[in-house]
Design goal:
single chain; alpha+beta; 7-stranded mixed β-sheet; 12 helices
Length: 325
């Protein structure tokens, strides 16, 4: 997670080496074409839609150059054209744009998004294409960085556009509703669980902190996360003391899997709450397997879509902050 208060918050799904490479490209290059590599020997070169801007030489620091790109990235793109553009080329441009956004000041980045959407208003064809690029680069499974803060304005613009049919809006309206429902600071959504004993229970967080892991007992990454949690003795001490409740949830199951899943819950620590939430993948914003949510004493979401390392560090950070008060 990106915690600097003056920067826009991202969750990165990109390897540090690849991310560093892209950042160097966007801040040095002028007209730039990003190759999509299907293999080391076979590259698909995407021709840029327009010449990407180059920050002047007097912008010599990373943030300043990124801020410049936020102000001027789309200057050469004709937002008034009613014709569709090549979606792959637009996705490529948007990837370069969001890479620079990662290093820009938060206010600059969000103002840039708002200015872009303002230019697109009244142009439903391009509005939908940009929403698709925003989904590809800020929200979807192939996105290198995630930011609800930067993606939400695109969803809101599509849903509010009267020239876009309800059918074309549907997926974006569902995403908008899901992101609002699961936003940090919002109350954790109601969740009915089928517990280890087969009984149903409406789950409500009750501990000072609640860590919810959405996953599947049989997945390798979930088993690794469990090992990581069991090795974190301070986390185990918090669970033992009742300061932290650990909850494991399968959110994408079908009834035919129930018996097998309940049997697999026996592998989980006894002090963990474990259950199946049928239809949970339609309720919760889940982009990783496993995906961790952290809930506070007020039953509100503190953070979401974390990996196990980030989740453990966040619990420790809150514990340390509370200790100092």
């Amino acid at each position: 997670m990106w915690h600097k208060s003056n920067m826009i918050k991202f969750t990165s799904t990109l390897s540090p080496m690849r991310f560093k490479h892209l950042a160097g490209c966007v801040l040095i290059a002028g007209a730039l074409s990003m190759p999509l590599c299907s293999s080391a020997q076979n590259q698909i070169i995407i021709e840029p839609l327009f010449e990407y801007p180059t920050p002047p030489d007097d912008y010599d620091d990373l943030t300043g150059r990124s801020d410049y790109l936020m102000d001027h990235f789309w200057d050469s793109f004709d937002c008034s054209s009613t014709a569709a553009v090549d979606q792959n080329a637009l996705n490529d441009a948007f990837m370069v744009y969001t890479t620079a956004m990662r290093y820009a000041n938060r206010d600059k980045a969000l103002a840039s998004v708002d200015a872009l959407i303002k230019k697109l208003k009244g142009n439903p064809v391009l509005m939908l294409q940009f929403a698709k690029s925003a989904e590809e680069n800020l929200f979807g499974p192939r996105a290198s960085i995630w930011s609800d803060e930067a993606y939400l304005p695109f969803l809101q613009a599509v849903v509010a556009d009267k020239k876009i049919s309800d059918t074309r809006k549907q997926r974006y309206a569902m995403q908008l509703d899901m992101l609002k429902r699961n936003a940090p600071g919002r109350k954790f959504p109601d969740m009915r669980l089928v517990l280890r004993n087969g009984r149903q229970k409406d789950f409500q967080p009750s501990a000072r902190l609640t860590l919810v892991e959405f996953g599947n007992p049989g997945c390798d990454d979930c088993q690794f996360a469990r090992t990581k949690l069991e090795m974190a003795t301070d986390i185990g001490d918090m669970i033992e003391a009742g300061d932290l409740e650990m909850v494991f949830v399968v959110a994408d199951a079908v009834p035919e899997e129930q018996s097998e899943l309940l049997e697999s819950f026996k592998e989980l620590p006894e002090r963990w709450t474990a259950g199946i939430c049928y239809g949970g993948d339609d309720i919760f914003d889940l982009r990783n397997t496993p995906s961790f949510y952290l809930i506070g004493p007020d039953k509100k979401i503190i953070a979401k879509n974390m990996d196990v390392t980030t989740a453990v560090n966040e619990v420790r950070r809150i514990k340390e902050t509370s200790r100092k008060k």
